[in-house]
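Readers outside the structure-tokenisation community will struggle with the description of the input data as it stands. What matters is that the chain and its backbone geometry are given together, residue for residue. For illustration, here is how one protein appears when written out as sequence plus structure tokens:

…
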Amino acid sequence: HPHQPTPTTSPHHPASTTKMAAMATTMTSTFLVGAKMPNRVNRARSASRASKMVVRAGDGDIVKKDRSATPQGDKLYFASEQSLSYLDGTLPGDFGFDPLGLSDPEGEGGYINPSWLAYAEIIHCRWAMLGAAGCFAPEFLGKMGVIPESTGLVWFKNGVVPMQGTFDYWCDPFTLFFVEVVLMSFAEHRRIQDYRNPGSMKEQYFIGLETALGGSGDPAYPGGQFFNMFNLGSDNMDKMKLKEVKNGRLAMLAMLGFFVQAMVTGDGPAANLSAHVSDGLANNFLTNFGVIGGGF
């Protein structure tokens, strides 16, 4: 028989194509996720993903879980079959609403994962509730005469937007802003440490407050004498968690409304509320957009 040459892999050979596809996938993953994490982080993530289970049925049917025992009950808002396959009502405020599928564990990557998104929502809720109260209260109390009118500033005229006005603080607004950034950076680093390693704050010395700041093991609900000084929810914590997230979502919408009102009307929320109460037909959402002359 004539000598048969040893076959070689051509550029279009399936094995070569598979290798090229694998390389492309690796390069894309590196580009999107960044540098590789340490092995111990990868092992932890692999173990975490392995412990998750999404209940899905065949033929496109979804196994809907019993939500009647959860604080929000069986209430669903714009839920889909996809969202109900991984949202089972165990998270506070889970009404099955996830049109973008952000909490789907099958599509997680980086910070887009169910654990981080649920945690981040609670943190944003709390900041929004503080912000909404802080934007409205000084202006309202100043107009009511409860505090000096000179301190009852509209929220965007207190120095946060320098061209709109400032206030005579103990230092200039830029120095005050820098000091706040430094202090908040320290607090935020402590917070993210506790998220990544729950309970680690009690292991680091902090002027004798390690036990008080040690947390509960759940980074979103640290509890303790500082973060739950009135021991709220002692009889029904799940119900309090639901109330918190519902009020927090409303506060986030309120903050968005304050921003838009400031740009459209040039007034603060207390002035906008007063104008609407005095003449609701002339001062409302539709008429304000008809005369755009905001402060920004």
Observations:
- DSSP finds nine helices and no strands in the chain.
